[in-house]
Amino acid sequence: MLDAICLFDDSNPVTYSVFKFQKLSDLDIEKYRQALVCPACAGKAYYRKASKDGKAACFGSRYHNADCREFKPSAAKEREELHAIEVNQLLVDSDAMIIDFSRQPSQSKARLIKSELAKNELGKHESANEDISQKAKSASASQSVSQSTSQLTSESAALSGHEANARSDAQQATPSKRIAKEGLEKLLNSLMRGSELAESDLWVYTDDKYRWRAKNLFVNFADAEPTENGSPRMYWGTVSHIDKEQLWLNPADTKEVGIPIDKIAEPLKQRFGLNERRDFEGAAIILFGKCFWNKAKTRKIIQLWNNDLNRVFISKSEEN
């Protein structure tokens, strides 16, 4: 995106070209960057500074409408859409879902993009297209079979030791009960592409002890509110930017929330390939954590649960 509309002053929206925006003072950039929207579809937008290796500054959005002229399909976006379809099907086929926080991405982003580009080349040939489609269907079918058979046995046994409500669920875990198991990557991708997960009544287990209705568990940053007794939730959305000291993540979805990373900054950057501040800008993120007010009650804090890196996933933006 070469242009974005700034709604910092609702009564006086201003359209900035990326060239004009990058010439603003650092103070103004920090002030306006969380008020940017796409000029075509009004989807929440972000600003990325120029990189050290010569990549130009740009605007981008993870919230484009599918028919937006600024929306540019890519291998990663296609993967997100596939994950949204798979999760929506999971909601239909499953009675419950367990979040596997230990599950790692199936392959690195670089390998993914390279693989998808190769598929696109093969896509010029009809036979290759059919082969790719069959592989996708086979993978989905294989996963469904695995979730409804082998996982059923092991997860039913795990659920048998739960507290009252979970124990009741375990007793109902008969061979006909279908329990899915998914990692954070697919859940985040599906939420970013508009899956129905955040509105679903599906029971979701965050460990062997606690379960939640999906609609009460998955919370966009814009809707985050401090919970009673610090009860955790799965918070998700996009990152606007990281502060200069790299101690806080600032969600693009709201100006009222901050995510402290001072105790995990370096391992977090290494884990998700966030080599410079620019890499955080426009990144999608999901984390299991608790929301509470700061001491002055001027800002909501979302703290990663036990600072456990297995309970957070970040997907960098593909924009230039």
Automatic annotation (TrEMBL):
Disordered: annotated segments: 123-178
Superkingdom: Bacteria
Compositional bias of kind Low complexity: 135-160
Compositional bias ranges of the Basic and acidic residues kind: 123-134
Protein name per the record: Uncharacterized protein
Originating organism: Shewanella pealeana (strain ATCC 700345 / ANG-SQ1)
